[in-house]
Amino acid sequence: MTFPGQPRILVTGAHGFVGRHLVTRLLELMPAGELVLVDAHAGAQPARCRNHVADITNAAQVTDTIKAERPTHLIHLAAIAAVTAATADMRQAWAVNFGGTQNLALAVAEHAPDCRFVFCSSAEVYGASFTGSGRCDETALLQPVNAYGAAKAAADIMLGQMARHDLKVIRLRPFNHTGPGQNVQFVAPAFAAQIARIERGEQKPVIEVGDLSSARDFLDVRDVVDAYASALMRFDAIPNGSVMNIASGEARVVRTILDDLLAMSNIKIEVVVDQARLRPSDMPVIAGEAALARRLLDWTPRCAWADTLRSVLEFWRAQPSR
Question: Do the beta carbons of residue 266 and residue 200 sit within 8 Å?
């Protein structure tokens, strides 16, 4: 399936981890058309792409961007993406994750009312709903337990309300995802980067860890961007205001992720529990039900988990020595 016609797709956060993978995928699916890469700073600019520098927390800059570009589609990725970073600076997390989304939605509603808006929310919006048994589907209560999840939930609710007043919008709630290029604020690259440094002799063969008992629903970033691309392409066939989980349905214990990465190295590495890092998880198990995405997006994860982890480790092995 490819995009018909000549869409002009605006991608916020285009130069971030997920954004770079999404841009690559969209260019594969677009025989014609253009991508507008919106970020606070200009980055690489592939063929059929244009950079548009704008700060999404600045309402005037966002309005000028929408008026100038008149996108046919918009996919909103820009965010303070790490829970730890959002917790450290709650004001900025709310300004970006809620305020930036509000600026975009209001500008689209006023200046590009035919634009199809795809919002990348998060499984973190469910929060305390994961304390029960089983996998959360889209009917679970939004009970965020951290600043990141709260700001995303507020934006999610706002867009649902705006959908009742003619904003063309779909909300996607991805669960944990990883892949090459993700930074060490996230668990798989945090382990992989240390293994790569140990293999290069830059770190003693010891990895210090905190609680490894929590379980999370992990996806490959390539599967996630496939879901995003499908939402853009199928937008007009999906009920307006729809919410869809993007999830594997399987919760992986963090300890097994470390064990699998260690098994990919020929060096014997000791794992040491650092008591200072032992913080009990608010949500011991997180897993999602993605039946709606399978039905409405014709989407299912396709990447083997071992290949995902290997791609993360190879990325960090390829980084220059420090």
Answer: no
Residue 311 Cα distances to 26, 116, 170, 261, 270, angstroms:
21, 33, 30, 11, 22
The rounded distance, in Å, linking the Cα atoms of 26 and 46 is 12
What pTM did the predictor assign? Answer: 0.95
Contact 179, 246 (CB under 8 A): no
Q: Are 118 and 26 in contact (CB under 8 A)?
A: no
pLDDT by 10s per residue, the chain, length 322: 677 778 999 999 999 999 999 999 999 999 889 999 999 888 888 888 999 999 999 999 999 999 999 999 999 999 999 998 999 999 999 999 999 999 999 999 999 999 999 999 999 999 999 986 678 999 999 999 999 999 999 999 999 999 999 999 999 999 999 999 999 999 999 999 999 999 999 999 999 888 899 999 999 999 999 999 999 999 999 999 999 999 999 999 999 999 999 999 999 999 998 776 655 556 789 999 999 999 999 999 999 999 999 999 999 999 987 6
